[in-house]
Amino acid sequence: MYPEFSSALRRHLLLLPVGTATVERSFSTLNRILTDKRCRLSRLTPDHTRHLMLMSLEGPDVPDVRDGTSKEQNEMDELLHAA
Fold it and tell me: What is the mean pLDDT of residues 42-49?
């Protein structure tokens, strides 16, 4: 019906990059969650796994404790020692 539009659309679709990074990231996250030991000891249900995946992929960024200040590290050491 619209040959020029169809032709332009086809050219642009062929130029779109095909990326698999998101899928690979999801599989890596799933592999970290579904370890043999965790599945054996805690009996993860599919619902638990889904929630853990959502928290991991879409949850807030968790700061790396190694990037903390010495004061924060000392406070964490005191907390761990008290526990």
Answer: 80
